[in-house]
Please model this.
Amino acid sequence: MTKRYELSELIRGDNFIDGEWVAAVAGKRFDVTNPATGEVIREVADSDTADARAATDAAARAFPAWRDALARDRAAVLHRWHALMVENADALGRLISLEQGKPFAEGRGEVMYGASYVAWFADEATRIYGDLIPQQQRGKRMSAIKEPVGIVAAITPWNFPLAMIARKIAPALAAGCTVVAKPAEDTPLTALALAMLADEAGVPPGVLNLISASRDNAMPAVADWLADNRVRKVTFTGSTPVGKYLARASADTLKKLSLELGGNAPFIVFDDADLEAAVTGLLAAKFRNGGQTCVSPNRVYVHSGVYERFADLLATRVAALKVAPASDPAAQIGPMINERAIDKITRHVDDAVSRGARVLTGGKRLAELGPNYYAPTVLADATPDMHMSCDETFGPVVPLFRFDDEAEAIGAANDTLFGLASYFYSQDVRRIDRVARQLEAGIVGINEGILASEAAPFGGVKESGYGREGSKYGLDDYLSIKYLCQGGLE
Ligand code: SIN
Model:
């Protein structure tokens, strides 16, 4: 029977290294707070380089046995981990809401979303095939086999505290890698709870090691992994500046990298679109996690022929969204993660308004609800000189830009350093084919706002990074190819 835990039993405050719960070597701790209230939920280990090194030592010791484990045994462990996540989806969902702020329905949804990657990669573990290369010379046999890259360092963000770490650890473990991981300082509790469930699922000691660190200590701890030759891969989801730092700092040890970085997603509404469907799709894509999502539409381009109608429909639906703490069952948008997030949203909206944007709804903090709330906002008459046109707002703000023809819309959509997600709505099949091919993005939503799935490749182009998570491609980032050439066969 898969064990079900109370929320309080899932909250851990120590590091998980070599199958043990241990305090930080220096004995330091830092507070994890509830973004809805600012109250402390729990103190956790404030790790530094000594803890990072201990995690790597454990991962190095565990690697040979895990690499050599039968694929079906690794798969069985991952399936048990998946079952534990599903069985504990309510408690994990509440934990996500508590430390990250998203409404409970979204928190629970995230558990099922993250768990789906674990089930997917459990199955993929048993399908890591190589190739027998057609014979080129008599007496010689050539083949290619796939091997785990080695120790993987996983560094994960606060916006999806469960899904992002699950979709890195699962393929790593499936491939036969061992893992050292550091979740974001805002939301380490969900990751620690996952480590607890992984332990119960039978992940052997040292195969998964997880440390938490405050904002001040995180970089030194991670730097230890970057400089360590035993760590062969870094997988990161987060901002582009940090991704660039990781790429530079791991160059000396030539690690393999997967970087899922910032986006600045365009969302185009053509004049032949089903406007009701486009509004529904935009709401789903934009307000998931209150807009704190890398694939969140950041720039909405609407054809001038349907601009006013679309703006009206959208503003009416956005004004009706319920902003409330995660504890309110009717909540659709919770608090933003912290004060810095609120400051950035406020700066972006103020800048847009000062440059001529019209506030159709929202445009202000909701201080009466708590420290980190911002009203869902629609801005009309957005223009390319506004900060939000080139920088992700990462909040519940929709700027509406106007365009007159397809080429102009595509040019504007691609006029960004980033290329993670993009979206468009049109009912013209020829246009759909043309636009989908021309958009510079790793992911394109066509008449659809919710794109992510464990069965699909998730990742970007340009400065949104490289590597893919999920799908049949997702394991490649954790494997290297070895060519075997056997002679003397005749
Ligand atoms: C992200 O915001 O980085 C991930 C979003 C997703 O998985 O859809």
